[in-house]
Amino acid sequence: MKYRKFGNTEVEISALGFGCMRFPTTEDGEIDEAKAIEMLRYGIDNGINYIDTAYMYHEYKSEDLVGKALQDGYREKVYLATKSPVFMMDSEAEFEKILDEQLEKLQTPYIDFYLLHSLFDECWEEKVVKWKLIEKMEKAKADGKIKHIGFSFHDEYDVFKKMIDYYDKWEFCQIQMNYVDVSRQATLEGMKYAADKGLGVIIMEPLLGGKLSNLPARVAECFTAEKTQTQWALEFLWDKPEVSFLLSGMSSMQHVIENVESAKNSSIGCVKEEDKERYVKAKDIFINSALVGCTKCSYCMPCPFGLDIPRIFEIYNKLPTSSEKGKFLKEYNTLEVKADACQKCQVCESVCPQHLAISTLMEEVHKAFSEIKPSTEED
């Protein structure tokens, strides 16, 4: 495994971190504990030393699973990260209450890297600043409950820069980045700004919710077959000196094995100069063909009205990349609850990291599938 310096923390982290948002699940939607623990321990045994979870992942059960997986001496082998769910808090008193709950679920006396989770401008002003949550983070650090202070981010560059500049003791940040998102959210410029300030920079969504591992044909043509689509995407980020490491939410043992092997071969400057234009071309084609920027993070779930929001968008996003619209109408019609069941409560929109107008998009989804002729469904 390759390791990288993590900002000014004097800590070295594996080029690949294990994200705990996409564990394999059973038919009833529960985490498949045996498989998930096997995957985590395989990753750790093969050099991964950073485990990232969060309070609400897997419907609040990810931290419990991670706590179990890190027994038998595994906790001592890794840096453990989890997050304070600021966006879902109703009062400042919840900060310490939830942190204590997380320590119990994770079966650990301290968390190495603690993040204010999924910050955006409104949340920042109305909660982080108003409730003095950074001061609460500092107190938790002084009390030995956490070791390092950081945040994860989902908004625009100007907001990111404002947050970085607000507090001069940030130790790290976590941003969404991949070859499609270079000008979105924190942006490459923001990534460099944070690194220049001495922050460790963690990359989430390097595969854009798996989309960059399963590219539409026109996008896939931008790359050669000498590497997998996943390798192309990961190397785009490992190439950059500002990147401390990548988080991958792996959902099968095969994903872990392949990504660990890729990480072992990673390095700054790994992208050949003649290949850099491939990423630019792929990004342009991808953006022009994408309908909804959903990464299947499932923050929006469960829907009060029974919609499987990520699944609906997954099927919908296939329409512009294929002439077989009838095939996807069939797939859409297998859903028990369809897009027209949306009641526009907007609960999902309040927590969506991509800031999607989900209720409006559901109208578009319903219209699109309604316009596919029934005869086409039999093609």
Overall description:
The protein is of the alpha/beta class and 379 residues long. It has two domains: 286 residues, TIM Barrel (Alpha-Beta Barrel); 70 residues, no CATH class. Helices cover 38% and strands 13% of the residues. The chain has 14 helices and ten strands. It has an eight-stranded parallel barrel, surrounded by seven helices. A two-stranded antiparallel sheet has the order 1-2. A hairpin with a 6-residue loop joins strand 1 and strand 2.
Secondary structure elements and pairings:
Blueprint: E1 3-5, E2 12-14, E3 16-19, H1 33-45, E4 50-52, H2 62-69, E5 79-84, H3 94-106, E6 111-119, H4 121-129, H5 133-142, E7 146-153, H6 157-166, E8 172-176, H7 187-196, E9 200-204, H8 217-220, H9 229-238, E10 245-249, H10 253-264, H11 276-289, H12 309-316, H13 325-333, H14 358-370
Helix pairs in contact: 1-2, 1-10, 6-7, 12-14
